[in-house]
Amino acid sequence: MGKTRLIAETGAGQHGVATATAAALLGMECEIFMGREDTERQTLNVYRMELLGAKVHAVDTGTATLKDAVSETFREWTRRISDTHYAIGSVMGPHPFPTIVRDFQSVISEEIKAQLLEKEGRLPDAVIACVGGGSNAIGAFYHFIGDESVRLIGCEAAGRGIDSPDTAATINTGRIGIFHGMKSIFCQDRYGQIAPVYSISAGLDYPGIGPEHAQLAKTGRAEYVAVTDDEAVDAFEYLSRTEGIIPAIESAHALSVAMKLAPTMKKDRIIVVNISGRGDKDTAAIARYKREEHQ
Amino acid sequence: MTDIERAFSRGKAFIPFMTAGDPDIKTTKSLIKVLADEGADLIEVGIPFSDPTAEGPVIQSANMRGIASGTTTDDVFQAVKELREDGLDVPIAIMTYANVVFSYGTAKFMKKMKDSGFCALILPDVPYEEKTEFSVPASSEGISLISLIAPTSQDRIDKIASDASGFIYCVSSLGVTGMSDSISSDVGEIVRSVKAIRLDIPAAIGFGISNAQSAAAMAELSDGVIIGSAIVNIIAEHGSDSPRYVREFAKGIVSAIR
User: Fold this and answer.
1) How far are the Cα atoms of B27, B83, B237 from residue B248, in angstroms, in the given order?
2) B224: distance to nearest CA of chain A, Å?
């Protein structure tokens, strides 16, 4: 392609760190766009990106979160396209981005399936993953879509609740729209203005969802449930305490649903929860959240 | 003669842009009248959108001010309808984003456009490959969906130009809207390749035209100039007092291009 420079948006910073790592390995120039608010709640990842040689731009437009970072990366790409590739961070944006990202991420379900068949000789009963734009979820679902016995559960960020304005639960509260180069489901008002969504999690704080998830929701092949900040924080603490694994606050949304689902199932059933990121990056923000909660 | 043909029938066309509701819809109506008075040939009115991805900082801020003033799609239709009832006959186009049209109901939006007295629609986030969803309902109401051609369109120029209606919007430079001191890409070449395919349709140049000098230079190369950010900057500075400053600016442009 002749491209020497990589740009990407990032919410929680995971995709930014991954892109910066690839750029460092290949000796490419790298610039990451991140909402100002997210650079503040994810300072560890900002430092990691800079450590890898990337330049991090704090985006001040709009709500200063993920959707604005995406818009700003598109703007940058139109400004300088001849030497620059946009490594989009989720299964979203114009075709063929949702397909490209899904194909890369589908290694997750390929791996889950191979390991489970090897160890247990059967498929899981449920696969659970968090959904912002939906890349880790589509990756975890993809090779199970044809296996009707496997429940696929996507977990959206309800923020302070799906009946409050402070939510990012797109499938539970949105409707069809056209934005960021895709026709899918978006949180919006009656005139099509994109809603200023909210979640404790910077990675799920996006007002849309990848079009393939919209399709899975419509056909009913996957279920999409909403998880509040409080429930996600409880799950974050639970896994840290019981297993010594600190999950990303994004992934803690999926974990919370597993904690509710498991007691309803027989003991020999298999649930796979995709812990899509580590939570070291979130510890400072969660500690702050807990302090505010106790005030 | 269609409204757009009329817009390009008086020599080089002056096509000013403003975002509706910046700072309020009353000022928008005054601005439209002032620009028509000063010889604008076609006026582009933006319906504010929360996430205007094709805009630079100047017009992004105007969109935010338009939303903050509570200006809705229906308010924009109503404002132009009232101007028509008062006898204003300058051709007027809408510039907005796909979701504003889609969420309103695309067919209903086009009908409202026609009933309120609009002639054309510009949607910078709808590519050629996806345009029929909008162009078909538009043309059934006599509305032209305007095609944009950018320096990166290259081998798509043929098909975009062949299918274009109304006029062709040639984007002068890479990137988003905004005022630049120099227009980097060879926009003359773009206009020439468009003209090689369609001589029957006017081609106007937009993005980055900030003053009388650059307007004159771009008018040399094409059939008209689209000026947005420079006008929006005046509105940002003077607010509801801006029409008289915009009038002075418009006089300068018109005398430079004709």
Assistant:
1) 16, 22, 14
2) 24
Q: How far apart are the first and last CA of chain A?
A: 55
For the whole model, what pTM was predicted? 0.95
Q: Which residues of A touch B208 (CB under 8 A)?
A: none
Question: Taking CB atoms and an 8 Å cutoff, what residues of chain A touch B104?
Answer: 191-192
B65 vs B238: CA distance, rounded Å: 13
Structural domains of chain B ordered from first start:
3-251 (3.20.20.70)
R_g (Cα) of chain A, nearest Å: 18
* pLDDT for the residue numbered A190: 97
The residue with tokens 């067919």 is B107
Q: What angle do CA A65, A71, A75 make, to 5 degrees?
A: 140
| Min Cα–Cα distance to chain B from A122, Å | 43
The one-letter code for the residue type at A12 is A
Distance of alpha carbon B40 from alpha carbon B197, whole angstroms: 27
Cis geometry, peptide bond prior to residue A211 (ω within 30 degrees of 0): no
The string of pLDDT tens digits covering residues B109-157 is: 999 999 999 999 999 999 999 999 999 999 999 999 999 999 888 899 9
* Other residues' Cβ atoms within 10 Å of the Cβ of residue B244: 11
Chains A and B: how many Cβ contacts under 8 Å?
68
DSSP at A207: S
The Cα A177–Cα A196 span in angstroms is 15
Distance CA B215, CA B226 (A): 9
d(CA B171, CA B209): 10
The ipTM assigned to this model is 0.95
For B71-116, write each residue's pLDDT tens digit.
Answer: 999 999 999 999 999 999 999 999 999 999 999 999 999 999 999 9
Distance CA B191, CA B159 (A): 15
Contact A35, A64 (CB under 8 A): yes
